[in-house]
Amino acid sequence: MNGKIRCLNGVMASGLAAGTAAALGAELDHYSPGGAGIRDFAMPEAGFYAGLYNYAYQSHRLNDANGNTINSVTINPGPGQGTTLGVNVDVDQYGLTPTLTWVAPWKLADIKFGANISPSFANSSLGASLSTVTGRARSGSASSFGVGDLFVQPFWLGLTLTNWDFALGYGFYAPVGRYHTETITLGPLGPFKTTAPDNIGLGFWTHQIQGAVYWYPRADQRLAVMAALTYEINGNKEGFDLIPGQHLTLNWGVSKYFPLTSNENLMLELGPAGYDSWQITDDTGSNARNPGVHDQVHGVGGQLGITYAPWNVTLDFLYFYEFYAVDRFQGQSLSINLAFTF
């Protein structure tokens, strides 16, 4: 049981769904906490692994600095009283993130070394959706599918013990996704610059540090209790004097394998999971909107997975419901993830 699980765990969690990551309020981060499987943060054994992550997010609610639903916003890019607009939130987004992971065939003091790369593709970013909803960008179709930002994790360490797993990695998001700015005119307020409604990339670099710990009550690792912390440091947003605040995200979950056949070749995985994400520093720069307001979001859900060991294939279904959010969208997500070993 232990060997079968170990070869299939941890295909990729660090850079999931860069193209669908949230960018709300003023700006948020690249990391999307709702797409990774419970056991994806642990490093597998030596080899090459591939994953295909499908992430869908839906929201009909935008919250203010107190966590209350926003029904209208006032647009004021310059002097004057501004213009009040009604808010109609209808966000449906989809992101596709293929990933390739390599774990070295050697160890140093039982410590494993690995790396992964994850391009992303999506119909738009949540930041572009927010700009459209709040009137900071013109309305337009965001249904086209294109390239999002790229995640690369060149440094990933893992240590596996009988009842524990530890992982630590550094990665970065490169702003290679579709991104541009435009100038629009809003009535008497005149022209002002904003992001385009069909953007997929977020327009800034992000450095990410991620650590995870697993506890296995039994040596066969059928049951796993997981906690992972992700810390993001963002760079300046292209075309603006704006550095989004740093973010800290906690992922947690409990996973249990149930053999469906006597030889344990086919296994069912079930477990609750959730995430909590906080902005921990102010947005900075002359274009920062409400820099003292820090966004946050909290979600809870679970995972259902099927693993077929002879083919080295795992198929996971994840659902998360966001029960509280500040200065951002509040919604729900569904992920369907496929992983296999070369």
Q: What can you tell me about this protein's structure?
A:
- The protein has 342 residues and is mainly beta.
- It has a single domain, classed as Autotransporter beta-domain (Lipocalin, Beta Barrel), CATH 2.40.128.130.
- The chain has 2 helices and 18 strands.
- It is globular, with a radius of gyration of 21 Å.
- It starts with a helix and ends with a strand.
- 46% of the residues are buried.
Residue runs with pLDDT of under 50 for 5 or more positions: 17-25
Number of strands: 18
Please state the average pLDDT score.
Answer: 86
What would you call the shape? Answer: globular
Count of folded domains: 1
Using the coordinates above, name the CATH class: Mainly Beta
Which tags fit this structure?
342 residues, mainly beta, Lipocalin, 12-stranded antiparallel beta barrel, 2 helices, 18 strands, 4% helix, 51% strand, globular
SSE arrangement:
Layout: H1 2-6, E1 47-62, E2 72-75, E3 83-86, E4 91-108, E5 111-118, E6 121-122, H2 126-133, E7 146-147, E8 150-160, E9 164-174, E10 181-185, E11 191-195, E12 206-215, E13 223-234, E14 247-259, E15 266-279, E16 296-308, E17 313-326, E18 329-341
Antiparallel strand pairs: 1-4, 1-18, 2-3, 4-5, 4-6, 5-8, 6-7, 8-9, 9-12, 10-11, 12-13, 13-14, 14-15, 15-16, 16-17, 17-18
